[in-house]
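4.2 Preliminary Data

To establish feasibility before requesting continued support, the project team ran the inverse folding procedure on a target of 360 residues. The structure was first converted into the token representation described in Section 3, and no sequence information of any kind was made available to the design step. The complete token record follows.
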């Protein structure tokens, strides 16, 4: 158990406990303005007797507001009668970053790179330690909602890392498809990154399935991104057997929800990513959903300081569907500015293609 963080209400109630509680994860802090302080992260529990415990997380990155909005909405409206088991919601993990409109915490830490945390580390590391040691082991499943933040813009979609553990991968795929999103985006491990340092990676390290999504980006919510995330979250909770309430997302967003279950396979990051080869102002030359062929122009980089220099072209390294474009124009060499994947009409077509490739 963590010595440096705790919850203001009891997280270890008996299995037959019934009630809705809101409070804080309190992390020990000491600041210039308050010698004996706590950094407080809101948490809500809605429990109705025995059943699965599902943890809903958002705001891992501060400038990804789609998940935070959906999780805050869920925490406000979820009632005991809607639940079987327990839904635990931490809607804004990185509060200081969220308030500042930044991906990273004010001390420069990326919350999604500090796992499994440190009991005596920074505030972010203490929070990660609490999640990793006190919460994840007690949960049956976890959903961690992301988006492109200010710098990127994804097709709003459920996303899944193609983990090497086949049993876990199959369970994660089952949970992803349970969300009934229009798109499920399959990716590989983040390049040049320790996968266990990510929040979802830490859940996987503990042998548990984790659902994730990239529900838009550019640091804004849109009607479309909120429709996709609200529906996916509700379907996820219902699929896990923990939500037994009304179809709220369907009633709010009835006209715009698409459950067609298309797959975009961008697992091979060596060709799926296109990156900036120069600092400058990036111009998207393709839009989300657009089909491109290998070698097609996807963007241009303009020199900040002079119109005399030629623009630098960024070209597709594979054919496929554009799943990610740049969300913010200034770029630095090495920034990913576009992601392309192979589009499949449904999971069956994707799996058939995998079988054909392995048979070759
Ligand atoms: Zn994120």
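Position-by-position output of the design step:
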């Amino acid at each position: 158990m963590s010595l440096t963080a705790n919850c203001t209400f009891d997280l270890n109630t008996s299995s037959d406990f019934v009630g809705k509680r809101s409070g804080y994860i309190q992390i020990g802090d000491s600041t210039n303005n308050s010698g004996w302080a706590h950094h407080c992260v809101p948490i809500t529990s809605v429990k109705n007797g025995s059943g699965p415990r599902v943890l809903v997380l958002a705001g891992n990155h501060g400038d990804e507001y789609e998940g935070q909005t959906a999780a805050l909405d869920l925490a406000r409206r979820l009632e005991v009668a809607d639940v079987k088991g327990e839904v635990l919601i931490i809607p804004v993990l990185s509060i200081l970053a969220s308030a500042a409109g930044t991906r990273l915490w004010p001390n420069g830490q990326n919350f999604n790179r500090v796992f499994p945390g440190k009991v005596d580390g920074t505030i972010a590391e203490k929070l990660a330690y609490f999640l990793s040691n006190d919460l994840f082991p007690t949960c049956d499943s976890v959903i961690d909602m992301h988006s492109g933040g200010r710098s990127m813009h994804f097709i709003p979609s459920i996303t899944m890392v193609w983990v090497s553990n086949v049993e876990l991968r199959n369970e994660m795929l089952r949970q992803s498809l349970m969300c009934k999103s229009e798109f499920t985006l399959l990716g590989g491990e983040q390049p040049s990154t320790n996968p266990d340092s990510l929040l979802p990676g830490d859940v996987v390290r503990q042998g548990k399935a984790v659902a994730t999504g990239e529900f838009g980006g550019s640091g804004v919510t849109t009607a479309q991104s909120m429709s996709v995330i609200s529906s996916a979250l509700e379907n996820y909770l219902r699929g896990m057997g923990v939500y037994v309430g009304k179809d709220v997302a369907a009633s709010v967003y009835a006209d715009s929800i698409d459950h067609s279950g298309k797959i975009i396979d961008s697992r091979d990051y060596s060709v799926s990513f296109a990156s900036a080869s120069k600092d400058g102002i990036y111009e998207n030359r393709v839009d989300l959903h657009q089909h491109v062929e290998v070698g097609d122009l996807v963007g241009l980089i303009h020199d900040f300081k002079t119109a005399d220099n030629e623009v630098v072209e960024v070209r597709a390294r594979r054919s496929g569907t554009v799943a990610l474009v740049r969300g913010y124009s200034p770029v630095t060499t090495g920034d990913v500015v576009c992601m392309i994947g192979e589009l499949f009409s449904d999971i069956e077509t994707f799996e058939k293609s995998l079988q054909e490739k392995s048979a070759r």
